[in-house]
Amino acid sequence: MKVLLIVVDAATPRVVVPAIQTGRLPHLQRLAEAGQMQESVTMFPSITPAATTTIITGEYPARSGIVGAAWYDEAHEDVAYFGDDFWVVAREGFRAFLRDFLVGLNGERLTSPTLFEQVEHAGKKAMCLNYLIFKGNVAHTVHIPKLLALLPGVSLTTTVHGPSTLCLGDFVATRTLRGKPLIDKGGVLHRFGMDDASTGKMLAEVAEDDAFADFNVAYFADNDYRSHDVGPHAALDVIERVDAALGTMFEAAGGMDQLLRDTWVIVTSDHGHCEILEDADQAAIRLDVTFKELQQAALGKPWADGDQIMICPNMRAAQIYFHSKDDAELARVVELALADPRVDLAAWGAGRSVQGSTMYAAASADGRLDFWRGGNGDASARDAYGTTWSWRGTLDVLDVAVQDGMLRWEDYPNAFERLAGALDATTGARLWLTARPGCEFEVPGGKAHLGGGSHGGLHALESLCPFIVAGPQPLTLPVEMRSVDIAPLCLDLLGLPSVRRLGEPR
Ligand SMILES: [Zn+2]
Fold first, then answer.
1. Model-level pTM?
2. Which of 263, 298, 448, 498 has its CA 20 to 30 A from that of 437?
């Protein structure tokens, strides 16, 4: 049995599901009808590098080590920065791309094994087509496109470790599908082969050659770019092209039914998108202004003498690091942040209880809520996966109700577990902030996605992903799928052992 996991960046269920149901995405519709379609809840922060890492490792940032698109690595006094569209080499510069993405993100910063590593360790073969998190056991040479090789400081070869078959645009091609490299075919206009057209072409060729590995991941990035520019609804034409590419792949495989005989096909996204208001004053939050009374570390630089806080914006989320452990300073920053009506939530690690539980705190205009795992509080209830949570304060902060002893989430799906999965990260900040729907944290010198879309926060608008799976036989899934369940599901479908169970409490 094989697995083909297709990740369509930023595909948003409130856009994609109606389009499937009304026949605008006919191939996804056929796939959903052949199997099943539901929603899946992503992790927090709902941002590409961290979210794609969670999918491929099955772990929240606390264990995966990838806690956003930007964070401060205190051990190395270095700001990890993968940008909001970090594979656009032209923007960041190729050296940074090589170092951060090819080597850092898939090297020492990643602290949990990927599915590629696990599958190949178990003796099966894996294939990665343009997926950003590709760490595996096999060395591959990076080819520098001619145009980029001319840049000063770019070394001509670098080695990365990926699955047996690794195709990353113009940079890495293990073997070419037809014995002829795609190298230098993408070029600047096609994001050096890291765009949807290239992924679709590779998928069709693999299907036609009947060359799928046991486990395969293909990644379509374009929808995220387009959704940032025009919002998720207006970007549907990009998903239509992905749908067409899947149709071509099915045809090349001899038809969808033929492919599904021995292959499980999963289609999902890493996060959704939230519309951003057009007016800059309403939409763009400049935390450097909000916190102007405090001395701030220079953007992207380690601590300097006298610095009090460091701000790492992650689109609709932001991490705030503190130079000292002074609780009064944390309280002051939370107060300043929530005084801005465009800031939605503040969340921070609140130490340990007398019983030894890790405590978490969240605050909004509605007040404060402290929560922790275990049933030893005055108020407690279970989540959908069997974890009992206790709390103190008002549940209004996270818009959750209790019904028959169960937590019922509204605006912030699975909020306790997802916040814990970020706040427990040793590389993450002490304090996280999220923006109200319609708003975004703007990096000084950057540009908010005004009139477009964005993500990163905890809200349902950006936290839900479509989840479609079809294969040789019926399948039982957790009622509320999470992105952390995708890796154990893939291992189950391949008949391989998994350290995590599908739907287990986290
Ligand atoms: Zn994304």
1. 0.95
2. 298
